């Protein structure tokens, strides 16, 4: 698997704020659109007009309708024209035109952390030139809401996908491998998190032998189209959409899937094809794909919430949320950290004996036993640079009894995380290797 890391257009803590406290519920909408950005000399996509002009018009419509989060596919050689007329504050940098880029980009009203591009491990040229570009998927952890003091942030993991096209046997095999790959990535990197997947799947439910999108349903995802336009019934008879589509019950290969988590509840409240918004002045289409749109409501968890992240985007993802969600009123009985010049590991033991430990084995171990009426209510982290990578260097835990536990070495770049009133710190999420790279705290009601 190939992966590249890119910096967000703003720092990981520059989130959408809702005063001093994070909003605990809200709504967003999403749009997925294949923008037909292959060079005209390679593919005109049966779209009338000049591709550069059309791309500029697409960008202006993104701005006009103010979508919350937009995923685009085939955003290759006319990318600059889209961005020139769009006004979303957060946008991914292009990975390049054909044959260098993957054609995947995101335009958003919300900031994110941990953006990555991942190339498919398998492709097929049986029906076309799918192996011409490094197609794949992108990942980002998007912040729907965040408090100015870092106390709480509501994150959802967003995936933009463009799978192998075609209907030959090798295409079907490659496409299923693509979906299996993104599902495996989600299992590792989105454990414990809410997820939204949207983009060009090149898959339909009614095709014989095409099991790709069905496998996403089987792995616990909901299709916003099936839910809102098909009454929850997966189609078995093919019903192709015209372009622009005038109905929403027909099926395209462009899909929107989602799942909730103990930290965030998501609900798709509508789905439609936004085709009539994306037309030229003479009524001609701007892309050979119907854009797909969905409205979502979201609410922060009532049993678990989390802080903002602090540190660097390195190491392996971990989350205590799946374990904590099996507990009734979890409470730490002991805090245990390891540190020296930097923070090596963080851990705690719950009152039922469950141990939650992350990081390496270096440094000196320090521990603090909590009384039955004592809670971990505040944490302070400091970060710094080690070998060109940002890591957490220091942690200071403070309890409701005024006691503290310290590990590592303090720096000048620090942040304090305070549990919301009536809540306490019960676990961790983040990334770690031999040391603590990125860290956030999980809260639960007392």
From TrEMBL:
InterPro entries: Endo/exonu/phosph_ase_sf, IPPc, Jacalin-like_lectin_dom, Jacalin-like_lectin_dom_sf, Sph/SMPD2-like. GO terms for cellular component: cytoplasm. Transmembrane segments: none annotated. CDD domains: Jacalin_EEP. One of its GO terms (molecular function) is sphingomyelin phosphodiesterase activity. Pfam families: Exo_endo_phos2, Jacalin. Keywords: Signal. This is Mannose-binding lectin. It comes from Canariomyces notabilis.
